[in-house]
Fold:
Amino acid sequence: MFVLVNLKTYPCDPVAIAEAVSDVNERTDARLAVAPQAAHLERVAETGAETWGQHVDPIEHGSNTGHTLAESVADAGAVGTLINHSERREKLADIDGAIRAADRADLETVVCANNPAQIGAAAALEPDAVAVEPPELIGTGTPVSQADPDIVEDAVAAAETVADDVSVLCGAGISTGDDVVAAGELGTEGVLLASGVAKADDPTAALEDLVAPL
Ligand SMILES: O=C(CO)COP(=O)(O)O
Structure:
């Protein structure tokens, strides 16, 4: 299972969490990665943790003030990027352009979406993966894999209908190993989570708990 930790803009220490990700990753068969803010990418990547961006824009080098260029995210040490999010909503055309920009920079892509219909639309754009995250469960500590298993199974089916090689992750409220196991049983290949690690008093213990049953 893939465990991708999105640090959002939480007031956590991104380097300390990345060190915990790197450390726990060496002791599990699961794949762990961390997505810090753009300004922290380089310092996080230097820890050796698998590092992801939270966003890239559908642009090339040029006159794009304030934008995030996929090549710069890769240069900073990231190997992948999130695209779209309930907290960073993009138009379909921009999601498509961001996937192309990420492909150009050899960044792996996970497109987040709110529900199975959006997952189908996102999967049709052929990212590497999609992540279904019901907005009403984000940050609640109530795991989508247990609170709303139908949405996860429907998302897996929606993605398979349009593209059988796009992986599906799920997120929202994931914080324990049981949540990750439940996500796997519903047909996903991983989880995307934030507060369960970024707000934990002991991020290493939180990560160890997440991967313990895997
Ligand atoms: O939005 C999320 C990850 O992108 C999920 O956030 P929580 O894990 O805090 O619910």
